[in-house]
Amino acid sequence: MADIVILNPRFDISFWGLEHCMPLFGKQANLPVACLGLLAALVPDHHDVTLVDENVEDIDFDRLARADMVCVTFSPLAVQYHTVDVPLGQTNILVKAFGGRPESVSPAIHGVRHGVPLYVGQPSRRSRVGKDEVARFAKAVYEERRANHGVMLAWNFGPDARKAAQILAARENKRIDFVRLNLVRLESDEFREHVISKHKNYGPLLSFIQPPEVRVAVRRIKPLTYEFDVSESVSLNKDGAIANVQWDFHHQAGKFISTQGYTFLRDKKTKRAVLVVEYTFPQAGTHTVACSVQDDQGGERTVVQEIEVN
Q1: Which residue ranges form the domains of the chain, and what is each CATH number?
Q2: What is the pTM of this model?
Q3: Alpha carbon distances (Å) from 125 to 23, 84, 157, 180
């Protein structure tokens, strides 16, 4: 039996979230997240499932560290992909993800898998394991566990680390294996193939929405009047197309309020979203402009920029 936590990260502020209205109703989210219940229902009955929605409550990282598996959802309302930083429990989570059992007896050994000691490198993706870490781990494996085999998990391994492992194998018969960690995007074919190879029936359920790529071109037409063009923006979702563009020409940090007359604009002939607009500012100076672009697959992204108006 596995202890599984399904985590739904907090939404970024968006047009659809109604975040600024929720306090008026004493609520924290406008709709329950249906995917949490669906995912829980797909888990076999003999496993324990805990649902965590960050839109309702803060993340308990100690609880995540105790879980055998932590599954993180991706929301189409997110402006960008969420990452969950688990400074204390990250080592335990990686050990469990590798199929091991976390341990804290030795600072140099973070867990055991089938009797083989495990070491987890630093959380930063730019970090690199060097010869010193290899030497300390090999020493702990031999002196504390009386073993000659260990496995190190890390983002990167330096040339000196690999050379140190080769020397240990040749001179002292100590085998240190390296496992390089890698991030796989949820919407990638690699992830889909990995899941379907183990659970063929899950294929139809794997649908991940990406925010569009937004490109804004600004051109001065006359004093105080500017043209804003997002025609180079594209949907990153399969068969997706830009469905709507909204503008906030007096943007305040954290609050997107569409300027009157610049929401759900449609071309009268094509009925498609208007991608080029003009706006006349009331006065010269520095103005913050926000543009929110949605595609017809549910993807949304908001970009903010400052322009000097004259």
Answers
A1: 1-84 (no CATH), 89-184 (3.40.1350.10), 217-309 (2.60.40.10)
A2: 0.48
A3: 38, 14, 11, 11
